[in-house]
Each structure stands twice: as C-alpha cells, then as structure tokens.
Automatic annotation (TrEMBL):
Membrane-protein topology: Single-pass membrane protein
Matching PANTHER family: DIMETHYLANILINE MONOOXYGENASE
Subcellular location(s) per record: Endoplasmic reticulum membrane; Microsome membrane
EC number: 1.-.-.-
Pfam families tied to this protein: FMO-like
Catalytic activity: NADPH + O2 + H(+) = H2O2 + NADP(+); hypotaurine + NADPH + O2 + H(+) = taurine + NADP(+) + H2O; sulcatone + NADPH + O2 + H(+) = 4-methylpent-3-en-1-yl acetate + NADP(+) + H2O; trimethylamine + NADPH + O2 = trimethylamine N-oxide + NADP(+) + H2O
Domain of life: Eukaryota
EC class of the enzyme, as a word: oxidoreductase
Name under which the protein is recorded: Flavin-containing monooxygenase
Any single Gene Ontology cellular-component annotation: endoplasmic reticulum membrane
BP GO terms, sorted: lipid metabolic process
Chief location: endoplasmic reticulum
Name of the gene encoding the protein in the UniProt record: LOC115158463
C-alpha cells in the first residue's frame, strides 16, 4: 500500500510537496485553510487571521528564471519580475499541468498533529482537522509535511515604542497595508527598512505629503535592474561582486577570499549606484551581514525629498514623534510597522518543536532531530536572498525520499552538531535579528540538499560531456533547472531550459521590433572569462583531489564549442 502523506498548506511549498509525493509514489492529502491555492502570493483585500497577507502592488524581488520550479519554466512572455497576480497565474498553470489540485481539500484547518501511540514502530501521525462548518475529522497519516511558511504572525513590538498608547493617528502592521490612496496628503512614518518597509515607503510617498522612513541600523540597498538592464540575479558577466550570491564561479572565488574583502568589493559596487552615507542609509554592518533590501525606486524618492530617512523612534506623544537624534516630527497621521513576522507550529505538541525567538531546532531547517522516525518535515522555513520556490521544491524532493526510506538521516548527535554549527555561523556573520535565524545562502543550501537527493550538478562531468551546459552552470545564473540534469527526478528538458534561459529573459523585453543591427564585439572578454573560470574551477577541484582536471581546462580548446550557447556573455 502507498504511504499517505499529510501536506499542511496549499501555497508554493505545499504545491511542490504534493508533486514530490506523487513523483515518489506517495499518496498526498493537502489541507488548505482558505478557499484557494497560493498562500502568501494570493492578494486579499481583507487579511485573514493567522494567514500571510500582501499589499496590492507587490512585485517579487527575484527574476522569473531564478524563482521557477525546476521542471516547469515560466513562459517567456511573462515579465522578468512578476506582479503577485502573475505569480498566482504561474501557480495555477503548475497545479493544472501536474494535476495537483485534486489532492487539496480547501477550507480545512488542521487543529492537531501528534504521534500515534505506536509511533516508534510505525512512524504514523494522528491528524485532526476542522471544516468551515466546524465539523471535526480525525485521520491517520504515515508522514507529515508542514508548509505554512513564516509570514503568518505579524511581529508588532509596541513595547519598544514608548507613548504609542497616546498616539492620535492610526497605526498597523505592514500586513494590513493594501493601497496608498486613502493616505493622500497625510504625513506617514514607516518603521523598518526591509523589503516591505522600503516598498511601502516608496508607494506612499507618491501620494502623501511626507514619508519618514525610520531605521535602527540602516541598510544596503540592491536593485533589480543590473548591468545593461539585465536582472541583477541573472547576469552572465560577473563584474558585480553582489552576484556571488547567485554564481557558482563567484562562490568558488569567495571561498578563498577574506569575508571583509568580499564585503568591501560589494559595498564599493552598490555605492557606485548611490552613496549610502550621503543618503543617510549606510549601516555599521557589512553588506553580507544582513539580508539586503531590494528597491530600485528608494534612492529617487530620497533624492526628491518625498522620503526622508530617520533614526529609530525614541518616543511618541500625541501626534508627534521624537527620533533618537533628537529631531521631532509633528502632525503624524499614520505609523506603519514593517517589523517582520514570527512563526510557530500551533498544531504540534509544544514539546515536539518549540520555537523561541524565531528559532526552531531543525536539521537543515527541515527535520526535528529527536524523532524516533523521520516522518515529519518542515518545508519552506528558510530566508534566502532569492526565491523560496526552488528551495522548497528541493526540500520536498529530499523529504519524500526520506519518508520512503531511500535516503537516511544521520544520527541525532550529528544532526544536533550541524544545527549548533549553523547557529554559530549565523551569529558570527549576521547582525542579531529575528529575520536571520533562518537565513541561508542560496547556492550553498541548494547544493547541500541536492547532494542528499543525488542531483547536485557534476561540474567535471558536464565539462567533459557537455561544455556548453557546463559554462552556463558555472558562469550563468544558478537556475533551478541545474538540479534536474541528473539523478532522481531527472528531467529531459533541463538541458534545453538551461541553454534557453537567456531567450526567455530577453523575450519578455523585446516587445517592439528594432531595425538596428547587433554590434559586433570582441571575443576577448569571453577568453578572459574562460581563463578565470578555468583557474577558479581548477583550484576548486584541485583541493577536492581532482588535479587531472587542470589538463582539461584550456579555454582556447573549449571556446568555439561554448560560444554559441551564451549570447549575452561577450
């Protein structure tokens, strides 16, 4: 008999978990408390309790080639950075293509998940649910996948703002913000300079009399639009050190450079766009010591004066707000708390997976280390610089193979050591913040999980077998298709998807035919790039006991074979 799996949540993580179950021959049942799929990305005018909620104008910060599921590319005509409504369209296409919706039970809330009395032998779970009529039902499942995300419970730290009880205007958390129009002509303070805080400040500044953006630490601001107008996380050329987050070759270089030097190079690059100190934004921490804020418009709004950057709030009195630098702004009508979220697992026994300070003891952010049977997995509880969708998919692929017994987890001691090491690494690198407790590096984390599944790309194998794809994988964006080239779940379309990544990116931009010949450019940059790639890869493989690879890395030998595959490289 097939093993029954309970999937809690029908957002992006829930959808890909259903699909992974089906791929492994498992029988998934997904319980979704609302009446539709989409989770965080489904806009609703009125927020629902204990559910993620977004504002109407939200556009994703990751380009479509980096956010898609690994065997289902987003259509070429979709814009590179998609509005939330288009993300929903993509989810519906994905669900329809793989016939996922029939496995979802809508408007069903999970009340309780607990191990059965014979759990040590069976690994099974008792799950209690409730429908919209209040009718309860009990189920038995062989495994559970928790896919509820980490944007459900708004963090509203009113105790940190003395005098908030005297405030004469209105205040709310950013999850309750929907549109700017009702605040036309008002004076607004936005607290927090994360992605939501930056977006809301910019949007409000178009209609309000004045917006004040309050930040304790400041922030480094990245932009979506990179060199030559190409999405920042997509560019083949690695002249921007910020791309270390999305390029394999740069990750190799980063591994041998001091952290401070890598940060300095990145900070110099982002300061070329605008001087963060001049704009009162520069923080004390380094570029890669905090989750960066992505916002193309904020510098322009600061430059035009519609947004003023302020320090942290010292106190509130009536309609006046005093900041830490002693300045006071009067007649404030609205305060928006863009102060993040807390996560929890209210349906689990409190002792099974306790959460404190947004920290949960999970091996690879997925598996509770103390369970006698590895039949519970949390999917999507990570904070990458990039999209969650490919990471959730990779987690689901691993979890379902663990459920089937095809992969095994290490001992509890090993898992606890890994968890402790990760906590120490985060504490050493990042500023102390609840948002960093689940922070991961996109490539590193994807490769770690892919290794467990057996799908991590083999650079040596690709170089010798398919040099065109090898160069795309090494120098191009680390697109999810790379993890379908080999191993379990291999997809025949992965190679073509990798080679046509540029075409889909450009296809969304070429909306008007031009009678302008493409300029011919020197192949020297390609040769230099190949040389640099050869040195980096040679060093990487050399330290992994593959010195014979150096003989294969002659750029002149491979240039003609590779050049046709990378139209944007030279």
């Amino acid at each position: 008999m097939s093993r029954r799996v309970c999937v809690i949540g029908g957002g992006s993580s829930g959808l890909t978990s259903i699909k992974s179950c089906l791929e492994e021959g498992l029988e998934p049942t997904c319980f979704e408390s609302s009446d539709d799929i989409g989770g965080l990305w489904r806009f609703k005018e009125n927020p629902e309790a204990d559910r993620a909620s977004i504002y109407h104008s939200v556009i994703i910060n990751t380009s479509k080639e980096m956010m898609c599921f690994s065997d289902f590319p987003i259509p070429a005509h979709f814009p590179n950075y998609m509005h939330n409504s288009l993300i929903m369209d993509y989810f519906r296409m994905y669900a329809e293509h793989f016939q996922l919706t029939k496995h979802i039970r809508f408007q069903i809330r999970v009340l309780q998940v607990k191990p059965r009395p014979d759990f040590s032998r069976s690994g099974q779970w008792d799950v209690e649910t409730e429908n919209k009529k209040g009718e309860k039902e009990k189920h038995i499942f062989d495994a559970v996948m928790i896919c509820i995300g980490h944007h459900c419970h708004p963090n509203l730290p009113l105790h940190d703002f003395p005098g908030i009880d005297t405030f004469k205007g209105q205040y709310f958390h950013s999850r309750d913000y929907k549109t700017a129009e009702e605040w036309r002509g008002k004076r607004v303070v936005v607290i927090g300079i994360g992605n939501s805080g930056g977006d809301i400040a910019v949007e409000l500044s178009r209609v309000t009399k004045q917006v004040f953006l309050s930040t304790r630490r400041g922030a480094w601001i990245l932009n979506r639009v990179g060199r030559d107008g190409v999405p920042i996380d997509f560019q083949f050329m690695y002249t921007n050190i910020v791309l270390v987050l999305f390029r394999r070759v740069l990750k190799m270089v980063q591994s041998v450079l001091p952290f401070g030097l890598v940060c300095r190079l990145g900070e110099n690059k982002v300061n070329q766009r605008f001087n963060h100190s001049l704009y009162s934004l520069q923080p004390k921490h380094r570029l890669f010591s905090q989750h960066p804020t992505v916002n193309d418009e904020l510098p322009n709004r600061i430059l035009s004066g519609t947004v003023q950057v302020k320090s942290n709030i010292r106190r509130i009195q009536g309609s006046s707000i005093e900041f830490d630098d002693g300045t006071v702004e009067d007649n404030i009508d609205l305060v928006v708390f863009a102060t993040g979220y807390n996560f929890s697992f209210p349906f689990l026994p409190s002792s099974m997976l306790p959460v404190s300070g947004n920290k949960a003891n999970l091996y690879k952010y997925m598996f509770p280390p103390g369970l006698e049977r590895p039949t519970l997995a949390v999917i999507g509880l990570v904070q990458p610089l990039g999209a969650i969708m490919p990471i959730s998919e990779m987690q689901a692929r691993w979890a379902t193979r663990v459920f089937k017994g095809l992969n095994t987890l290490p001992s509890m001691d090993c898992m606890l050591k890994d968890i402790k090491h990760k906590e120490e690494t985060i504490a050493k690198r990042y500023v102390t913040s609840q948002r960093h407790t689940i922070q991961v590096e996109y490539i590193d984390y994807m490769d770690q999980i892919a290794y467990q599944v057996g799908v991590r790309p083999s650079l040596l194998g690709l170089l010798l077998r398919d040099p065109g794809v090898w160069l795309c994988v090494l120098l191009g964006p680390c697109a999810p298709y790379q993890y379908r080239l080999r191993g379990p779940g291999q997809w025949d379309g992965a190679r073509q998807a990798i080679l046509t990544t540029w075409d889909r990116m450009a296809g969304a931009l070429k909306t008007r035919p031009l009678d302008i010949p493409e300029p011919k450019q020197s192949s020297l940059p390609l040769t230099l790039t190949m040389g640099a790639a050869a040195l980096a890869l040679g060093y990487y493989w050399n330290i992994h006991n593959h010195p014979s690879l150096l003989k294969a890395l002659d750029p002149t030998t491979w240039q003609d074979k590779i050049k046709p595959y990378l139209p944007g490289l030279w």
